Fold:
Amino acid sequence: ADILDHLANTYGTDALKVLRLLREEPNWQIRLAANHPFIQAEVVYAARTEMAQTLPDVLMRRIRLGLIDWQATLKALPITARLLASERNWTDEQRTHAEADFRMHIEGLLEKATGVALPNLQSGS
Structure:
C-alpha cells in the first residue's frame, strides 16, 4: 500500500506508466531500500521517460532517496547502477566508475554529518 501511495503522490496519473513497466520485468517491483517505498521500476522510468543520465540524477533529483536517507542510498546504489547502466548501455567500467564516484560523494556527506569515517560498503550490504 505504501508503494502505491508513493507512486500516486509522486507521479500522479503517470504512476500507471511506472506500474506498466512491471509487465516487462516483474522484479522491478522490488524496493530499492528497505523502509522506503521507492521501487526499481522508478529507476527505469527515470531513465526512459525523464531522461535521467547519471546516478545522482536518479537518486537525488528523480527518486530523491539520496536527499532523505544516505545509508539507504548506499544500499540502493548497486541495483540502481545496474539498472541505469543497462538503460544507458554503459560498459562495466562506466558502471563501476559511476557507482564508485557517487558512493564516495554520499560517504563524504555522511562523514561530514557524523564526523565518523565509514567502512567501505561497496558490497551493498
About this structure: The mean pLDDT is 93. The two ends are 26 Å apart (CA to CA). Helices lie at 2-11, 15-24, 40-48, 55-62, 65-68, 70-88, 92-114.
